[in-house]
Design a protein that fits this description.
single chain; alpha/beta; Rossmann fold; 8 helices; 45% helix; 15% strand; globular; binds zinc ion
C-alpha cells in the first residue's frame, strides 16, 4: 500500500472494474472518473454506479479507500468522433484497418481531462485499462502513446504524474485471472453480473460471460477471453 492517491478511468466495463480493484489494493485513496461522450446508450453510465456500489458492499477494506466519482460531459467531443459507438454507423473496418468503433484521439482526451481532475484532487497516478495485447489495435491504447502522453502531462502540469496500465500486456483470459487474484469469486461475480462491455448496450440475455448482445466486437472479445480462462481451469493470475 502506497500513500499515493489514484484516479481510475472507469467506464463500468470488465477491464475498468478490474483496474479499479487493482488500484484499491495498492493506493491509499482511489477516485474514479467517467466520460459521457454521447454514447448510444446510458447503460454504461448506470453500470459504473452499480459496480462501485457492489465493490463497496462486498469489500469493506476497499470501501474505506474508495473516494469520489467524477463524471465529465464531453459530448462536444463525441460529436466530432461520429463513429459506430456514438452514431448509427455499422461496426466495420476503415481504410487503416481500424474498426469504426475507434473514436480518433479519444484516450488522449480522456487522459487530459483526467489529469486536470487529478491535479485538483492531489492524485499522482492515473490508472487506465488500455491494452495492446488482443484488443482492436487502437493506436491511442499503445504503451508508446501513453509514455508520450505521460511526459506531455508532466511537463504541461509541472507535477509528478504517472499513467498506470496494469492490463497492457495481458490477454482477456489473464484479465479474468487478475480479477480472481485481486478479489476472488466475489469480484468475478461483480464483473459477470454488473460490469457492462457490450457496444450496443444490450443487457437482455445473461451468457456465461455476462450480459451483452454476443455479436459486437466487445462481446466477442469478452466471451472468447472468458472461454479461454474457463478452459484453463479459471486460474488466478500470479503476481497480480
Ligand atoms: Zn455486444
Amino acid at each position: 500500500m502506497t500513500p499515493s492517491s489514484a484516479l481510475v478511468l472507469f467506464s463500468g466495463g470488465q477491464d475498468s472494474t478490474t483496474i479499479l480493484a487493482w488500484a484499491l489494493t495498492r493506493y491509499a485513496r482511489v477516485e474514479t472518473i467517467g466520460f459521457d461522450y454521447g454514447q448510444r446508450h446510458q447503460v454504461e453510465m448506470t453500470a459504473r454506479s452499480v459496480v462501485r456500489d457492489r465493490i463497496a458492499e462486498r469489500f469493506p477494506d476497499w470501501r474505506a479507500r474508495l473516494g469520489d466519482d467524477h463524471r465529465v460531459d464531453i459530448r462536444t467531443f463525441g460529436a466530432i468522433g461520429e463513429t459506430a459507438l456514438t452514431s448509427q454507423r455499422a461496426i466495420e473496418a476503415d481504410a487503416r484497418g481500424l474498426p469504426t468503433t475507434f473514436v480518433p484521439g479519444r484516450n488522449l482526451v480522456f487522459l487530459t481531462y483526467a489529469a486536470a481532475v487529478a491535479d485538483r484532487r492531489g492524485a499522482s497516478r492515473l490508472v487506465g485499462g488500455m491494452c495492446e495485447t488482443d484488443f482492436s489495435g487502437y493506436p491511442d491504447c499503445r504503451r508508446a502513446t501513453l509514455d508520450a502522453m505521460e511526459t506531455a502531462l508532466r511537463l504541461g502540469l509541472d507535477r509528478e504524474l504517472s499513467i498506470d496500465t496494469p492490463l497492457m500486456r495481458l490477454t482477456k483470459a489473464q484479465t479474468w485471472g487478475m480479477a480472481k487474484a485481486l478479489g476472488g469469486e466475489a469480484l468475478i461475480e461483480i464483473v459477470l453480473e454488473d460490469s457492462h462491455t457490450c457496444y450496443l448496450g444490450e443487457r437482455g440475455l445473461r451468457h456465461d460471460w455476462g450480459y451483452g448482445c454476443g455479436d459486437c466486437p466487445a462481446c466477442t472479445l469478452r466471451a472468447k477471453g472468458y472461454a479461454e480462462w474457463v478452459a484453463a481451469g479459471r486460474p488466478a493470475l500470479a503476481g497480480a
